[in-house]
Amino acid sequence: MAGTEYTLTGFENYPERQRVVFVEPLPGTRVCGVCGVVPSRSLLLPCGHVLCQVCKDQIPKGDGKCPLDGMEFAEDDIAQITFKQSHLEQLRVFCVAGGSSCSFRGKLCDLKDHLASCCGDKVRCAKCQQSVVRSVAVDHYRECSADTPPRNCVSVKGVSSAIVKIGDIKKDLEGVRVRASGENVDKDGVVNGVNSLMERLVSLERDLTHVGTDTCGEKCVPSQLGVKKIAIPSGPSRFASKLGAFITLCEFTNVFAGYEALTGSRKEYSLATNNYTLAGYTFSLQCKLEKIDDEHVTASFILFLREGVWDCMIEWPFAKKVTIIVTHLRDQAQDVRLPIHMEGRKIVKKPVGSGNCGASTATLNWMDLEVKGFFNNKTLYVNVEFE
């Protein structure tokens, strides 16, 4: 399959950053000369080079020089070029998914329907680990002589129980909503109802993490649950501070290794968490340790938005109020609430690739955290709240 591959951006009916292989190369005026994407709106400089808006925004104000040839330009000299989607969709493309195994060669507007039925892509056989074309995958499995790997199973009984619990929680949640929207709101009743729901959700989450274990020899169904295990911190969780807020527990492990690394001329060290998901947004945290002098070390927390599976279903730019709650192991009254101001395009935009820039809290005295008993087995717990 010959052709030229491009990445689309800014077109309404196509996923952001979708890769497309065009039969013929696109005109230079359609392609950003710096990053190579095909934007719905490009900027033509007087020198003839074309930039997308993202690359143009990286040129410092007052610089006015083309990044490709150094020629100066004025903002008034830039011409905007719009790539109409109706024109884009008439161009001929190849099927990216099927590659050389697929004979599709048609208009871009027909590609979506083709992909729904294309079987030219390759999959990996779970028995022999070889790549096979999906259109013949069933025949391959029937003839493959390699040993069948053990299947991950989900307990049918466990799943059925979870479905019943979810139904009960939905009913009670509707009851709480009705009480909260009434004229004479019983605040204590609403709070107690929400707390009860949270406790049941935690219990349900715990049940679901173990639902893949078939301990009784009961009937099982194949599952992918065991393919990727998600670590759920078991430390001091907190309830959200108000209705409509979301909260999750995060953990920094082996924290003393970071503190001990601040020796000699080294003044800073950062600890990092895994990725977490809250209210549909995926994020990670860093704890930045900074050595002021031999007696003083400060800690601040930085939140980074990351690419996640729900990004196409949630609102961008990110606009929620964020609070980091440094969580005491036994006494909730000693928790430290640190707000984070999520501001700036590079912080709140929809993440791509390695993720966004981070936003930081104010600093804390690291020694105070140690003296007051915030650490447990070299682990520091923080709850993150979005509202």
Please describe the topology of this protein:
Layout: E1 4-9, E2 18-22, E3 37-39, E4 41-44, E5 50-52, H1 53-57, E6 79-82, H2 85-88, E7 92-94, E8 105-107, H3 111-117, E9 122-124, E10 131-133, H4 137-143, E11 153-155, H5 156-180, H6 187-209, E12 220-222, E13 246-252, H7 255-260, E14 268-272, E15 276-278, E16 281-293, E17 296-306, E18 322-326, E19 336-340, H8 345-348, E20 359-360, E21 364-365, H9 366-371, E22 375-376, E23 379-386
Parallel strand pairs: 1-3
Antiparallel strand pairs: 1-2, 2-7, 4-5, 4-6, 7-8, 9-10, 11-12, 13-23, 14-16, 15-16, 16-17, 17-20, 17-21, 18-19, 18-23, 22-23
Give structural notes:
Residues 32-69 form the RING-type domain. InterPro entries: TRAF-like, TRAF1-6_MATH_dom, Znf_RING, Znf_RING/FYVE/PHD. This is RING-type domain-containing protein. It comes from Amblyomma americanum. It holds the Pfam family TRAF-mep_MATH. The structure is a single chain. With 387 residues, this protein is an alpha+beta fold. It has 4 domains: 4-117, Herpes Virus-1, CATH 3.30.40.10; 122-149, no CATH class; 153-222; 246-386, Apoptosis, Tumor Necrosis Factor Receptor Associated Protein 2, Chain A, CATH 2.60.210.10. 22% of the residues lie in helices and 27% in strands. The protein is built from 9 helices and 23 strands. The chain has helices spanning 53-57, 85-88, 111-117, 137-143, 156-180, 187-209, 255-260, 345-348, 366-371; strands spanning 4-9, 18-22, 37-39, 41-44, 50-52, 79-82, 92-94, 105-107, 122-124, 131-133, 153-155, 220-222, 246-252, 268-272, 276-278, 281-293, 296-306, 322-326, 336-340, 359-360, 364-365, 375-376, 379-386. Strands 14, 15, 16, 17, 20 and 21 form a 6-stranded antiparallel beta sheet that branches. A 5-stranded mixed beta sheet has the order 3-1-2-7-8, with no helix packed on it. Helix 5 packs antiparallel against helix 6. Mean pLDDT is 83; it is low at 213-230.
